[in-house]
Amino acid sequence: MRPTRTVLKSRFIHDPKTIYPRVRVDRIQRATLKKAPKFQQVLASHAVPEWERFTKESQWHFMPGDKVQILAGPDKGKVSQIMARHEEGNSYLVDGVNGTQTFPIPPAMAQEGQTTHVIEFPNPLKQSELRLVAQRPEEDGTTTEVAIAAVECVGTYYDPAYKRVLPRRVMAHDHKTQVPWPAPLEPVEHVEGSTERDVARERTHWVTSLVKPPFPIGALPDIRNVHHKRFKRFSEREVDLLTAPKPFIPKGTPELFARPQHKKPENKLTAEMEAFIGNVMQKHADAQVGQHDRVKGLKDILIVGFFMISGLQIARGRVVYSYSSTTIGNSNYKKWTTTTPSRLHPSPLNFKTAYVRGYPTAQQRNMSLDTHKSSSWTSV
Fold this sequence. Notes:
It is elongated and about 120 Å long. A hairpin with a 4-residue loop joins strand 9 (151-159) and strand 10 (164-171). The protein is built from eight helices and 17 strands. A six-stranded antiparallel sheet has the order 6-3-2-1-7-8, with no helix packed on it. A four-stranded antiparallel sheet has the order 12-15-16-17. It has helices spanning 21-33, 38-45, 197-201, 220-223, 236-242, 271-289, 292-296, 362-371; strands at 67-70, 79-86, 91-94, 100-104, 118-122, 125-126, 130-137, 143-148, 151-159, 164-171, 174-178, 302-303, 307-309, 312-314, 319-328, 331-339, 351-355. Among the domains are: 46-186; 272-371, no CATH class. By secondary structure, the chain is of the alpha+beta class.
């Protein structure tokens, strides 16, 4: 008989490191609660993860004191009153429905006047398992209880009964119909040491002039705390600490600590260079008139340096200066080409061309370049 072999594939194994973080936290909490006391297990069984709990007041559609109708469970159809909210489970504790759970609690959790360590905890109901029952006024002045299918919270308003801002509860299918919140089960009472509401709202001062101050200047110490740091004037020491220090400069030597100013570059052309350039330009002008014999003597010129003057550019280093003649229309142009020869490459590495006849137009330059692409090269 062929032996069977069990193959354990990784897709059937739940690695705690690869589980979604929220699921991992939930599993850890559930594993921890298995060893927890009974009352913690009961309370945690009705709780939801923290990321699913209601964080806004508008998410709660009911409040303690509301009458609701049960939509699910053994008490379906019954009408009862909400006693409290179970915020850890997004649910409500309804009076006398959905049963209770009995479990012991430690003495530290016992309430005042409690004689036993065993309590009954009602099973909470979700918000989707409840339907609001409201009072509808009739024409004859009486009221009738009606069940509202769904309610929503849109906007906010100040409720004087709760003394705080509450969301406005309206019908889901008709936002114009507002459903009021129930009266608070425990009205806010006056606490010893606090100012009563009517006394705090009583106005005892009116502005009588726009020019004079609303109160005497001598009353300032009684109205505000003169010892508060914000109302103090800065002393000399505080001003010294808040002022950035200045660099130390000895008297009589400010020029030594002045910032260096960038000077414009000076003209590096010497008198000899200018004279040489003038001679070359004069020879070019003479060549235009027709003195070709003098121009032939300029066929091979060795120049060391770098010069640039209005269209005539002479390269740096060992340069060969070549000449050729071009005729465009009725004008005769001389083409001077500079090239740097190389021992390894017989062809020139670079060349610059200059047309020496005043300032020819761009059209004439383009025509001369397109017509005469070849240049005469000389070797050194």
